[in-house]
Description:
mainly alpha, Endonuclease III, domain 1, Endonuclease Iii, domain 2, three-stranded antiparallel beta sheet, 15 helices
Amino acid sequence: xxxxxxxxxxxxxxxxxxxxxxxxxxxxxxxxxxxxxxxxxxxxxxxxxxxxxxxxxxxxxxxxxxxxxxxxxxxxxxxxxxxxxxxxxxxxxxxxxxxxxxxxxxxxxxxxxxxxxxxxxxxxxxxxxxxxxxxxxxxxxxxxxxxxxxxxxxxxxxxxxxxxxxxxxxxxxxxxxxxxxxxxxxxxxxxxxxxxxxxxxxxxxxxxxxxxxxxxxxxxxxxxxxxxxxxxxxxxxxxxxxxxxxxxxxxxxxxxxxxxxxxxxxxxxxxxxxxxxxxxxxxxxxx
Length: 287
């Protein structure tokens, strides 16, 4: 089992002072952070998160914002469809929940752009609900500390949630602190490539350490690439539209990538996603 006291003691001294962990952070601010943080490093998220909240302090302001400005403010965080989804989410929060982010996991799951992890993270970190929160870091810590293997293997929502739920302290407040501490341990110490077991508060009880830190012999995930992908081309096309007045001729867009087939495919996907619109022979961010 995981030594809860050791983990919480470590987190109290070593946890990062991230702005969304500050006292008084609203549920909307935490939801926005969680959406922005999907597959995106914290260091890149923080300045954009701050800029968004300065521009649109709550869901009502974001819901009323021009969509073109929302996409422009998303900048280079990647996966820009998230910008559209979070604005849709703001509109639903305003229209159906009176501008207040719900605390119930099922109600959160009904919001646009909110998946299982985000729903549970908001319920836990924003509303103090003692629900299991599972991300890649948590899965890795549990795999090592409890199961004694180097990697978590293919995800299984039910198994992963049950595994973390079994570790939660009975006390509600400690359960919430435990969830964020477990995630932080995976981000800072029990990392994927170079775990720092000599600094880990769970080393004395870790099943993987006790087994001699055996190498992983199960299936491995293929490393994701970016250079040369449709994602890169989509980003380059959006960069053109984010500059200036937000519009461009086809000739300007054609200049960003030499492969006609891939560029056309990327542009078509942006149009299909609603991130770009076409009118009178020009392309623009949606109004």
